[in-house]
Amino acid sequence: FFSLKDVGIYTLAYSIGMIINVINQAVTNAIIPKLYKSLEKKDGHKLVKKLNVYYSLTILSLALIVGFSSFWYVPLLFGQEYIQSPMIILFIALAFALNGIYRVSGSVIVFYKRNIIQMKLLYISAILNIILSIALIPFFGMISPAIATFFAYILLAYLSYTHGWKILKKEELC
Question: What is the pTM of this model?
Fold first, then answer.
């Protein structure tokens, strides 16, 4: 499907977009202990609600900054050969931001040991990612896997949010 040049362009874009994933990992490692303590006290809904709103806004804003600013800095730093990278960076950064949003709700699912639900959500998201990646290539070319990943993470974030809240409401009412 793709040439070695295309792979190089995509690899650069993916590497830059992963900045958001590094931030997600750091934040997740910092907030999970506090979140689990709140969940143990049956008071997790307050923290989860705050995290869903504030972390979502923050990480999506950062992803937009990384993505849109890449239209300026990628040609400047890497040359015109990488002119296709910024659009890929934007989708990858947004996808990783959505992955961070998933991690908040996913943490609730993990805490309450609903591993089967989490596994099903991840499988659904992965299958959607593969199908969309293949289906979109004739229309969008090299950017297709980034677009597919973005939509797969939208679905994963949404499904984990809805399932996480259902579980949280049920567990905290007990």
Answer: 0.93
